[in-house]
Amino acid sequence: INIVDTPGHADFGGEVERILGMVDGVLLLVDAAEGPMPQTKFVTAKALRLGLRPIVVLNKVDKPDAEPDRALNEVFDLFVTLDADEHQLDFPVLYASGRAGWADADLDGPRQNLDALCELILSHVPAPAQAARAAEPFSMLATTLAADPFLGRLLTGRIESGRIRTGQTLHALSRDGAEIERFRVSRVLAFRGLTRTPIETAEAGDIVSLAGMSKATVADTLADLSVTEPLPAQPIDPPTISVTIGINDSPLAGRDGDKVQSRVIRERLMREAESNVAIRVSDTPAGEAFEVAGRGELQMGVLVENMRREGFELSVSRPRVLFRDVEGERLEPIEEVTIDVDEEFAGVVVDKLSQRKGELAEMRTGQGGKTRIVAHVPSRGLIGYHGEFLTDTRGTGVLNRVFHGWAAHKGPIPGRRNGVLISMEDGTSVPYALFNLEDRGRFFIGPGEQVYTGMILGEHSRDNDLEVNPLKGKKLTNIRAAGKDEAVVLTPPARPTLEQAIAYIEDDELVEVTPRHIRLRKRHLDPHERKRHARQSAS
Q1: Based on C-alpha coordinates, what's the Rg of the chain?
Q2: CA-CA distance, 452 to 113, in Å (whole number)?
Q3: pTM
């Protein structure tokens, strides 16, 4: 039995459809307390559309707040809403506790092990239909991509027809039938548990990984030289946003990390693009920074967070949306946003989405005072919105987004309303200076921290940028008065997370990322240079 996990609700490049094309049945895992979540609808709809018959597993039935009967009814209602046929609606149900390691068809069963689940998979899921095509020429659709330091590029998929053996010569075909490359299979790997194990031969119906290719990627067909027609495949969704990643050139560069050179950063980004089909890396015209395109600022944040943990120092620009020009018309990516929120917060959420040029597609009230909102919102309108959404809904809202398509440019979208507080000195911040500047806005730093000219210290209370001196100490005199030497009490700094910092900055600002610090700064540190560039951009 091969068990394949889907990538979840974030549909990076159509992996869900490609992975569901490898399987013969699905297990729908539902929390017995929460019931079906918004991302459940997305993946389940894809599975039902392919004709797969699901097995429903109600997990965590031993929790105090579990309501398995309600969750089961919600699953049935979800299937009806998704136009499931009568065979799919007649689904078997298991009650389980993953932490305790048991599953049973009866809620009051013996609760011993997972035998009931394995037996149900064997009896309910049909055998691979591809097994009957073992005598035909070899063909396989590449579903996932990985990189191995010894074997190179690895493509994983299910063999649709024929047999494969180590040393066999294949060619790779694109979705339109063009030959990409010819290569010799250097290794055939099968999954045994969580590890890949080399095998000599595999046949139709098996899920394997092949090594030996250098150009073929996800959605390409790997086939015998006699095969000229590619297998039908989902196209890879295009990236919708990009950021510029470069070296850290601030005055504090090189103090935390050990990987600071442009060459090392480029190698790491290219290695990421090798194994992540949703990311594309290209050099900028100047050659000092790199354009990284992906599917959302969260994906960019995960990449940068991994790099900082590996010891890299980087500077990251504000995310920019990638546009298309078709027949003279500018198109921008649109996301389908599904929001589940309490009724009392629905009004403010709809208002914020409309400010960001979102169009309401569906709105309905469900059980438990929850409201479901479905809207089509430009990708650039969602940059930085998630943190604001959590604030508006007191942390109770759930937001999921999926690429919907391309549409005509929606016009300007309002950005950040407040300016920033910028340091005019190099040195260590002083509590007395920060205390006297607290009326100017909220700070991102605390006392005793290293600052430099051009570094962003906090958010200004007004809409313009303001240069301040965080190093100004109290003047010392020989006169003492009551209350003069009281301790300074500062408001705790609002330190932004990496994702918040990337979404917060404007086009003329950067995020400085090191293994120990996340700092915000102006792109041009010198104030005279900032004014000159501001005049040039205005003209």
Answers
A1: 28
A2: 60
A3: 0.74
